[in-house]
Specification:
The chain is of the alpha/beta class. It is built from 7 helices and 11 strands. The protein is globular.
């Protein structure tokens, strides 16, 4: 059996959906391999100040949401710099909102391979779309049952392996993609909303600071009148989804057109895919 001393579960999850799947897999693998589990979020700037170190004897579950068909652009350098651990066993996980995981799983798998981690298996899981609301309710019990069965299969592969080396995984998507998916409007033309930022209804905002605490870019600030976005916005909707007063929204026309397009075309249920 390949030695597994620690389960290290790494995730980026502004809205909590990727974290739910990552934590579930962490618990499953910890039980199956009888090894302690450590959670290592890199969602906020403060999270990313922690030491991310992996080595032989570690099983690394690395989970990322899918943004425009890939690893989120503003986290990509962090992932490349920290996803290294010669001899570590890994499970790349891409979580998408029912449209497509495109190149995200292939990209993450490739980064793990480049960093010396041996992927024993990979997962493309479905969760409620962060801003379109499609796939609401997922991951549900059926999803988690499928993922639990896969974890059992992966644990078996690890136990049957003598050295922790596994054949190259055949996962969909490019290992080193260059382009991102181009968001579309309902008429099929590109939706351009890179500069769109959340709008705060100051009559509802109570300056609680939840949005500032979760913002992965550190861009949400609490000013004299309430919350405001003062920097880069990656449209993660962490602030929108976690605001207890429903005081935050997006009003950009192209962004809203893209939301409408997703809601019109991607409502059919998709299930987790395992490789």
């Amino acid at each position: 059996m390949a030695e597994v001393k620690n389960i290290k579960t790494v995730y980026f999850s502004p809205s909590g959906n990727t974290a739910k799947i990552a934590k579930f897999m962490s618990e499953q693998m910890a039980d199956l391999l009888d090894a302690p589990a450590v959670l290592m979020p890199y969602t906020t700037p403060k999270d990313r100040e922690a030491e991310f170190k992996f080595e032989k004897g570690d099983l690394v579950i690395w989970a990322t949401p899918v943004y425009a068909g890939r690893i989120p652009n503003k986290t990509l350098d962090f992932v490349k710099e920290n996803c290294k651990g010669e001899g570590a066993i890994s499970i790349p996980v891409a979580v998408y909102g029912n449209r497509s995981f495109d190149n995200a799983l292939g990209e993450l798998t490739g980064i793990m391979e480049d960093g010396g981690m041996a992927p024993a298996g990979a997962v493309a899981a479905v969760a409620r779309h962060a801003f379109a609301g499609i796939a609401g309710g997922q991951p549900d019990e059926d999803d988690l049952d499928l993922i639990a069965s896969f974890c059992s299969e992966i644990a078996g592969r690890i136990k049957d392996s003598e050295d922790g080396n596994f054949p190259v995984l055949d996962v969909p998507g490019e290992r080193h993609p260059e382009k991102y998916y181009v968001p579309k409007k309902t008429d099929g033309t590109p939706a351009v909303f890179l500069k769109a930022k959340p709008v705060v209804d100051l009559n509802k905002c109570n300056s609680c600071g939840r949005c500032a605490k979760i913002c992965p870019m550190g861009s949400m600030k609490i000013g004299p009148k309430g919350a405001e976005c003062t920097g880069i916005c990656i449209k993660c909707h962490g602030c929108v989804n976690r605001c207890l007063k429903q005081a935050i929204c997006f009003e950009d026309p192209d962004f809203l057109e893209h939301v409408k397009m997703l809601q019109e075309n991607y409502t059919q249920r998709k299930n987790p895919e395992m490789f």
